[in-house]
Amino acid sequence: MPDVLSPRALLDKLVSFPTVSRDSNLALVDWVEDYLTGHGLSCHRDYDETGKKASLYTHAGPEVEGGVILSGHTDVVPVDGQAWDTDPFTVVEKDGKLFGRGTCDMKGFDALAIWATVEAQRRGVARPLQLCLTRDEEIGCVGAPPMIEVMQAHMPRAALAIIGEPTEWGIVNGHKGGVGFDLHFHGYEVHSSIAYKGVSAIMEGAKLIDWANRTNEANAAADPASDYDPPYTTLHVGMIQGGTAHNITAKDCTFVLSARCVPSEPNTEWAERIGAEIARIEAGMKAVRPEAGITALPRWDVPGLRAEEDGEAEALVRRLTGENGSSVVSYGTEAGQFQAAGYSAVVCGPGNIAQAHQPNEYLTVAQFEQGVAMMSRLLDHLQEA
What we know:
Elements: H1 7-16, H2 26-38, E1 43-47, E2 54-60, E3 68-73, E4 92-94, E5 97-99, H3 103-123, E6 129-134, H4 144-151, E7 160-163, E8 172-175, E9 177-186, H5 201-221, E10 234-242, E11 252-261, H6 267-288, E12 293-302, H7 312-321, E13 327-329, H8 335-340, E14 344-347, E15 362-364, H9 365-384
Parallel strand pairs: 3-6, 3-7, 7-14, 8-13
Antiparallel strand pairs: 1-2, 2-6, 4-5, 5-15, 9-11, 9-12, 10-11
Helix pairs in contact: 1-3, 3-9, 5-6
């Protein structure tokens, strides 16, 4: 049996794996699985279509329903182009902070959850503890749904899920949903001096982006009543590619258009609105050249998290943290996906979201140590249950 590692040692090990979202996470998954199985836990994987990424899940305690899930993602965002003062994939402690890619988002929580799961197995608990480590959260929360679907064939169904995204151990019981589309505008090349005879994929794509800007302005001007920041649905394009030369109408233009939807406006409503605007623009393109058009492929559809009346997950976290308040956030998490699958769900974890994705990302030592204390209280609760 391998040595029992401390939460801090687990954090150091997890951060050492450069599980950037575009790359495989299997080296981390292999190590975690070896560590967990070495302590008597049976692990299961859910692979993506390439076989190069996987989610991992396991169950500690009696084989009964009603357990608690601790869930975190394994992938991190790239460090390309960021000015780091230290090696991003080595945890460096300085001035009461733990620097490293993923310390905050969200390998700090992952380390705590792995430690707690092994402790639950070693001590014995009356109520089960389940660990879920997902793939591909950073590219649209696409790894959790298939894992949630298949894991129920291998483990008794749990009652609630705590998703450990950074909230500084505050309770988040609501977040926006979101949809995203991979868009490919297919133009028709001609010399720019006779641009009217061709179709510029870039300039047609710009029409959709302009519509997104105008829609954001209209949504803001409506002055909606909402606790979210901002209190309305927002559309966004973060990257764009296209064109071959300044004097040729662009044959291709690609980008991702996303919407972060307030709960009163379902994802389906915004998917339909985006689809209608794409169809309107495409009709104009085809009127010039029938070969032109737009390919729109759904990239993600992340349900929002809604506050639950007498929610079991929120009640448990209140007991563990002593927190009385709650809040909502505008970013998405996998909590909405667990909730959509019938689990009571809440978001609560170490670190401040402002540190996520930043150069010199850090988690304070105090927040991490607070997490160790919280997990210890969770283990006591599971032994009593």
